[in-house]
Amino acid sequence: MTFFILLGRYFLDFFEEVGGVFLLLGRVFQIFHRITGNVRAVLVQMERIGIGSIPLVVVTSLFVGAVTSIQAAYQFQGYVPLRYLGTVVGKSVILELGPVLTALVVGGRVSASIAAELGTMKVTEQIDAMEMIAIDPVEFLVLPRMVAAIIMLPVLTVFSDLIAILGGMIVAKVSIGVSYNLFTSGLKLFFESQDLIGGLVKTFFFGLIIALMGCYNGFTTRGGAEGVGMSTMKAVVSSCLLILIANYFLASILFRIIFAPSS
User: Shortest CA distance to 151 belongs to which of 48, 254, 229, 68?
Assistant: First the structure.
């Protein structure tokens, strides 16, 4: 009996969380037209999310491209000519590794930062004080962060793609002996613009998820310093899980329906 009670509470809490997230998202869409009055705040958040994440993106992308090149060369041995090494690295990075890994590493950093910042404001009653003086905290705190994340994730992904392909090219030359010309010829061989477009389209949704999870968990923080820690952890976990789940559905829609080859 106790088990079913706990299970019921778990599902009620889950649906309460889902409902709260959609209510916050609906509120953001409702006041989205007011973003013109918060341009300065958006630029500040773009600097924090974008510029602040560049070192992390560089290191991650460089080694992602390097290990992709090594693994592809290992799989090719005796089966596929190495002239296709650039093709595999380029396709893998542009379609999946660049968008998804960039979203995961940036999401971990950004969603934790947002949740900790807003959570601290919540437990110290700064958000309540804003409401008392007729300042909409969603407009002032959530909207700029969400717009900045949606704008900067595609930019960071393009940068990540370039660094990852460059890393794969360098490793192919140094470790495998594939010349730069051979690598780039394979890279251009099966390149399609729709691959790049599809990968970037996904990142707009990833940016939305990252900011939304950070803001929601920050706004629902309870219980002082311990509550801030719990909200930060929940923001990181939920954003990473939702990115992976959304990636599946977005990939299915984009590459099986919208960009599917016509028969």
Answer: 48
